[in-house]
Design goal:
The chain is mostly beta strands. It is built from no helices and eleven strands.
């Protein structure tokens, strides 16, 4: 089993930056893809970014492409989402998920989820 914990949420001004981390513990961590999803109040959860087990391939939603960067350090069992050029519409609860050999945008393929961390961007 894999346990997922997010950290690093908070507040930022538009144009600013935040870095989220996703720490995962448990067996076979390196066989899991990791992804970030977000959900704003009154909206459906949406995919943000995913990274494969080795960190050699990433996939981004069009809304964050060029602004967010996802990386992972398997020695530390941690993935990092660097968020730059933040916009008010990035405000949401961000959740990390782990999926066995999967890192794309279908949430049904993720087996383990963290509780989420709030990101608030002011204009």
């Amino acid at each position: 089993q894999v346990q997922v914990v997010e950290a690093g949420g908070g507040m930022a001004q538009a144009g600013g930056s935040l870095r989220l981390s996703c720490s995962a513990t448990g067996r076979s961590f390196t066989t899991y893809g990791l992804a970030w999803f977000r959900q704003a109040p009154g909206k459906e959860r949406e995919f943000v970014a995913g990274i494969n087990w080795s960190g050699t391939s990433t996939y981004y939603a069009n809304s964050v492409k060029g602004r967010f960067t996802l990386s992972r350090d398997n020695a530390a069992n941690t993935a990092y989402l660097q968020m730059d050029s933040l916009k008010p519409e990035d405000t949401a609860v961000y959740s990390c998920a782990a999926g066995h050999l999967y890192y794309r945008d279908n949430s049904e393929y993720y087996d383990y989820w963290g509780r989420g961390t709030q990101v608030t961007v002011s204009a």
